[in-house]
Amino acid sequence: MTKKKTFKRFLVTSALPYANGPIHIGHLSGAYLPADIYVRYLRLKGKDVKFICGSDEHGVPITIRARQEGISPQELVDRYHFLNKETFERIGISFDIYHRTSDPLHHKTAQDFFLRLYEKGLLIEQETEQYYDPEAQMFLADRYIIGTCPKCGYEKAYGDQCEKCGTALSPDELVNPRSALTGATPIKRKSKHWYFPLDKHEDWLKKWILEEHANDWKPNVIGQCKSWLEQGLKPRAVTRDLDWGVPVPLPEAKGKVLYVWFEAPIGYISATKALAQQEGFDWKLYWQDKETAIIHFIGKDNIVFHCIIFPAMLKAHGDFILPENVPANEFMNLEGDKISTSRNWAIWVHEYLQDFPDEQDLLRYVLTRNMPELKDSEFTWKDFQTKVNTELVGNLGNFIYRTLTLIHRYFEGIVPSEPRNFIYEWIAASKTAVEESIETFRFREALWSVMELAQKGNQLLSEEEPWKTFKENPDQAKQTLTDAIQTVVALNILMQPFMPFTAEKLRKTINLSNLSWNILEQKPLIPQGHKINAPKPLFRKITDEEIERQIKKLKGGMTTQNTTSQKSEQQLAEKPLIEYDDFSKLDLRVAKVISAEKHPNADRLLVLKISLGTEERTIVAGIAQHYSPEELIGKNIVVVANLKPRKLRGIESQGMLLAAHDDGKVILLTTDKEASPGARVL
User: What is the pLDDT of residue 349?
Assistant: First the structure.
């Protein structure tokens, strides 16, 4: 039996999301949620771990999207960098840093990496013929070339793939190729580029992946790597002709940038450097010390880059260690179909957070239960409802709430006694099962081990019925509820990596400050005489109406060749009709903005001080990308004045301003004429 490796520290990365769109549940279940579970577990165990991520902000898809919207690539990536950063924070993905590849530190790090390979003579210089647009006077990336697909006849196929039949193509295969920029027929021109000779790394990669990691890497990862290696590796271009990206740091390379496949993974290194500057540690320990385990969490479309190409780059550089594991997930499908951002067939995480406020853990739970660890899985709204209502409400939440309520009812919230020994056996078995599963990246299995402990707790209450025995045999009721509260504390610790928001609510209820992993070995976990606070249900049932609304929203938002008017009708139909009484509950008022400033803890938020005539209030609003603080001062805006206060990143918001969302822009609702602060909107 191979001895298990031990490491002094861990560097955990999640794939850098492309900054040309928001995050959907497929992204979350593939690369971010499993990494967060793993990192939270390591932190609970007191391990030295850094969790690294950031936006991938270069490449042709970004330039195409920016051109379509009539904005600069920088404006586009700014929009999605901050949206995605906030989305990750709100869903509880606990990165130590969320960096970006447009940052100067990344540019310098990627250029230095390139120069190291160049100066060692490890890059091949080669002149090739590439397509050139004579009207735009620029070389064309494959995605900028469109034509007729030779397989199915689709007339708008791209130079790298036909979106209709899915066939992988090259520009030379297109019938009647033309420039997507000007419509001109492209011509061939010679251009010099630098190539990384991946084929020279084939032998050691085969040994490293197929032999050394045959037993500890996931079979889906090994299988894809084996397929690539058996086909034979070829040199890959490191540079390309483009005006958006990291400039190639050579005098003769004007107008060329580093290929995004080459510089994007270096973003992990530059992000670690940035974090080291913030926190004052040596970044090299996490990339160059053999006592560090580097773990890359990715989706299956990134396996080749993280298991073959990036390790070959690190090896060629010479100063870096190789990743210890790359636990890639497969894809998550949605309601019987593949998730498609182009057709808007997706559940966007930031929209889920709007529709289910403060219920982040419901999505985290269901995505973990359905995680595509070894094969593609599927999310459906009906399954979401079933899992929440039966597993979270009916099992976990039911056991915890019953236990805490009965302790308050019969023992005034005081832990009444010492537990029986079998409780420690239960907890030890659950602890071991969760540890073994998480450490081998089987997160579905780990979560189910947590739920099985809750099932045991429910069974204990059902069999011993302390609500009945309290009258006849109070000592028995005391024993049952003591055993149950110990199990609740264990569940509180075990659920933390998976459902951190729920775990924190429960921690406050049971009134314990330290809930690290080693508490699971403590006897008892919670002492006799300890006072707990009054409980509230941790979860609520999801209604049929909510599910129907989400399904309608999903199907209504799916687009193929929709016109703008059709989209507008779909958006208007997303919410059901309401009665006048529902509307009359809103207290809409005119407010004058007295002051405005950026939120100290969130880039997308502004903190407004408003006047309602007879009083002043603070409102926190996510409009920093659309309005500067200066242009808001003195404006008359419309606010919901009777909304319950809610803390947003540490500052209490005492209302909500009204704004229109129009094709990505946010436009504040203001009054047509001057109105007194506090005037009611009828």
Answer: 97
77 phi, psi to nearest 5 deg: -70, -30
Domain 578-682 part of CATH 2.40.50.140? yes
Measured CA to CA, the distance from residue 184 to residue 146 in angstroms comes to 11
Three-state DSSP class for residue 152: coil
∠ CA 367-371-374, rounded to 5°: 170
- Kindly report the pTM of this predicted structure: 0.80
Fold held by 385-521: Isoleucyl-tRNA Synthetase; Domain 1 (1.10.730)
Identify which has the larger pLDDT, 343 or 232: 232
Confirm if 56 and 34 have CB atoms less than 8 A apart: no
**Nearest partner of 297 among 578, 51, 548, judged by Cα:** 51
Task: Report the distance separating Cα 62 and Cα 71, nearest Å.
Answer: 11
571, pLDDT greater than 60: no
Give the model's pLDDT for residue 162: 84
What span, in angstroms and rounded, lies between the C-alpha atoms of 25 and 381?
12
Whether the predicted pLDDT of 199 surpasses 80 = yes
The number of beta carbons lying within 10 Å of the beta carbon of residue 341 is: 15
Phi first, then psi: give them for residue 574, nearest 5 degrees: -65, -35
pLDDT on residue 603:
64
Torsion angle, CA of 127/168/68/80, rounded to 10 degrees?
A: -100
Kindly list the domain boundaries of the chain, sorted by start residue.
Answer: 1-101+264-297+330-379, 385-521, 578-682
Q: Collapsing DSSP states into helix, strand and coil, what is residue 191?
A: strand
Distance set, CA 148 to CA 161, 162, 404, 600 (Å): 11, 9, 67, 52
Question: Any idea what DSSP says for residue 185?
Answer: P
Give the tens place of pLDDT for each residue, 399-423. 999 999 999 999 999 999 999 999 9
Mean pLDDT across 181-191: 90
pLDDT-derived band at 94 (thresholds 50, 70, 90) equals: very high
**Are the C-beta atoms of 38 and 297 separated by less than 8 Å?**
yes
130 and 121 in contact (C-beta within 8 Å)? Answer: no
CATH 3.40.50.620 fits 1-101+264-297+330-379, yes or no: yes
CB 500 within 8 A of CB 422: no
Q: 3-class DSSP state for residue 359?
A: coil
How far apart, in whole angstroms, are the C-alpha atoms of residue 35 and residue 13? Answer: 7
Tokens found for residue 467:
């609500």
pLDDT of residue 130: 86
Rounded average pLDDT over 24-36: 98
Angle at 449 between CA 358 and CA 454, to 5 degrees: 65
Using CA atoms, how far residue 592 sits from 60, 637, 657, in Å, is 44, 6, 11
The answer on pLDDT for 566 being more than 70 is no
Q: Contact at 8 Å (CB) between 175 and 188?
A: no
| pLDDT confidence bin for 643, thresholds 50/70/90 | confident
pLDDT of residue 348: 97
Kindly provide the b/e burial profile for residues 192-219, where b requires at least 16 CB atoms within 10 angstroms of the residue's own CB: ebbbbbbeebbeebeebbeeebeeebbe
CB 273 within 8 A of CB 288: no
User: C-alpha distances in angstroms, 396 versus 201, 204, 467, 479?
Assistant: 50, 49, 19, 21
- Asked whether 538 and 401 are in contact (CB, 8 A), the reply is yes
